[in-house]
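Design a sequence for this backbone.
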């Protein structure tokens, strides 16, 4: 599928490995729908992890401003990082849409983007958009400082351990919601609450934490609601700090992660800010949009109204 190019054309980035190969298996069906509903498209497939960043760079340099990510949350994250690490145009000129074929599809869940392809493509055709904030985190990988952008949720501590295990299984071609849940439970055996310093709006707190989640979005891990009240367009990050907990207490409280009431727990603190700094004498590892990254020290920030996204259902506070 190759048609005319230009600012009104959609650039389609396809991850064939998303959803345990669902991106490749279902591509012909998705392609037919795009041909039927959209007039101008260009398609590129990713070959390996990280490819979507460079593909997005090149497409923007060629004049494309509208993108369709065909994949999961990780593919979408790469496209977002492609947008924010180029200097050909302001990020606010870019429109981003999603056809979900991943295993979690947490960002799309928040905006009512159908997992049925016909519905997802119809939303893209309608091109109803809002301005979406984008978060970023500065962290270390060994001794090297790095930076990563995220559109949904980033996590430190226990969450990053579960994501790391899950990503290893994804690389071997095995991944689904049940495996994520199994990794969550099995990781409890080895994980230890970690002492750290947390600075929010210049106020410092110290103590042991189980996990820290920082979100523009509300869902992660295939439906968990770690930052259940986050809004994607308020210019702020929602921060959920789960303080020191024992294994039994964590297991008893798991349902709170799924029903959106996690902030009601006496050992959970919720904040809203545009800046968060986390330091620790013991390395806390982190992930963003389900992508395993480096470790603390880490500083989080946000870019308000950063890019346009196509949505189905709009969140209201």
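Sequence:
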């Amino acid at each position: 599928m190759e048609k005319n190019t230009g600012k009104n054309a959609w650039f389609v980035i396809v991850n064939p490995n998303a959803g345990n190969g669902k991106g490749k298996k279902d591509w012909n069906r998705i392609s037919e729908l795009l041909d039927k509903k959209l007039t101008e498209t260009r398609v590129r497939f990713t070959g390996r992890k990280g490819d979507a960043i460079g593909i997005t760079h090149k497409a923007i340099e060629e004049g494309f401003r509208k993108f369709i990510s065909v994949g999961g949350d990780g593919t979408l994250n790469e496209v977002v990082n492609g947008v924010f690490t180029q200097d050909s145009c302001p990020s606010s000129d870019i429109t981003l849409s999603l056809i979900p074929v991943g295993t979690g599809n947490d960002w799309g869940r928040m905006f009512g983007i159908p997992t049925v392809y016909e519905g997802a493509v119809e939303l893209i055709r309608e091109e109803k958009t809002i301005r979406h904030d984008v978060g970023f985190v500065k962290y270390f990988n060994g001794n090297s400082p790095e930076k990563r952008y995220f559109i949904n949720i980033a996590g430190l501590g226990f969450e990053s351990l579960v994501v790391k295990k899950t990503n290893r299984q994804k690389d071997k071609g095995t991944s689904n919601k049940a495996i994520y849940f199994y990794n969550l439970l099995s990781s409890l055996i080895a994980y230890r609450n970690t002492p750290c310093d947390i600075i929010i709006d210049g106020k410092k707190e110290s103590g042991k934490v189980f996990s820290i989640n920082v979100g523009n979005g509300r869902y992660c891990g295939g439906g968990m609601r770690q930052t259940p009240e986050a809004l994607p367009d308020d210019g702020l990050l929602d921060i959920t700090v789960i303080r020191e907990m024992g294994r039994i207490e964590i297991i008893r409280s798991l349902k709170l992660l799924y029903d959106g009431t996690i902030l009601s727990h006496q050992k959970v603190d919720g904040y809203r800010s545009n800046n968060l700094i986390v330091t620790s004498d013991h390395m806390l590892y982190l992930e963003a949009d389900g992508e395993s990254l480096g470790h603390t020290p880490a500083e989080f920030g946000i870019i308000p109204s950063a890019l346009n996204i196509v949505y189905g259902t709009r969140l209201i506070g």
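The CA atoms of residues 107 and 244 lie 28 Å apart.
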